[in-house]
Amino acid sequence: GEDVEQSLFLSVREGDSSVINCTYTDSSSTYLYWYKQEPGAGLQLLTYIFSNMDMKQDQRLTVLLNKKDKHLSLRIADTQTGDSAIYFCAERSRGFKTIFGAGTRLFVKA
Amino acid sequence: GAVVSQHPSRVICKSGTSVKIECRSLDFQATTMFWYRQFPKQSLMLMATSNEGSKATYEQGVEKDKFLINHASLTLSTLTVTSAHPEDSSFYICSASSISGKELGNEQFFGPGTRLTVL
Q1: Which of A2, A6, A44, B57 is deepest in the core (most CB within 10 A)?
Q2: What is the mean pLDDT of residues B75-100?
């Protein structure tokens, strides 16, 4: 079945870049998403990429997609303490079902 | 983006009682709403998908008689946890989409979540 995997923790210093990685198994994925969840809150869509793209940049966020390897990454430039949160990778393939990874907890040290 | 609200944000109830959680799309009509459950430090688990005016489609392993979902209007879906037990304690999150889902690119907008604690 479909599966999305990502590392559980990442710690960076303020001002450095953060790179969060994700792998997925469904080759028919059409959209891939990055969501941010702050403590006790719902999910906020950060960015998404179509499966026929290999890169998308949005201000401090850069998404890279390697469709051959089914690998997705999210780079946050100039990481700030306010970026500390859980980041979920998700993919949508056939129909409308979205599969989420377990989330990567980003710690930003001042 | 579009706004989705949930009510209540937090609820504590006694074992054996039923709890209703509301999910509303505030500035758009949601043809499809999703209910997720999130355990501490874990990902979201899709419980069911509901389309306005029709019965919800439950994921495997989710008891439809325990988790009653009603999507009676294009702006409101409710999840009722019947005869709640402590193991039902969790963070419940809804999301809504304004398109049927068959087109590409439609986005899900997430509510802020409801924390249910069953004593």
Answers
A1: A6
A2: 90
Q: Could you read off the pLDDT of A1-37 as tens digits, one per residue?
A: 668 999 889 999 999 999 999 999 887 778 899 999 9
Q: Is B102 in Cβ contact with A96 (below 8 Å)?
A: yes
Interface A-B, measured as beta-carbon pairs within 8 A, has a size of 49
Backbone angles phi, psi at A100, to 5 degrees: -105, 145
CA–CA distance, B80 with A46 (Å, rounded to integer): 30
b/e code A84-106 from CB counts within 10 Å (16+ = b): bbbbbbbbbbeebebbbbbbbbb
Contact B46 A102 (CB under 8 A): no
The DSSP code for B106 is: P
B42 touching A (Cβ < 8 Å): yes
Per-residue pLDDT tens for A49-91? 988 889 999 999 999 999 999 999 999 999 999 999 999 999 8
- Check B107 against A103: CB less than 8 A apart: no
Rounded Cα gap, residues A83 and A36, in angstroms: 9
Put simply, the answer to whether A40 touches B97 (Cβ < 8 Å) is: no
Interface with A, mutate which of B43, B95, B97, B109 (most A CBs under 10 A) = B43
**Tokens 């079902």, residue?**
A97
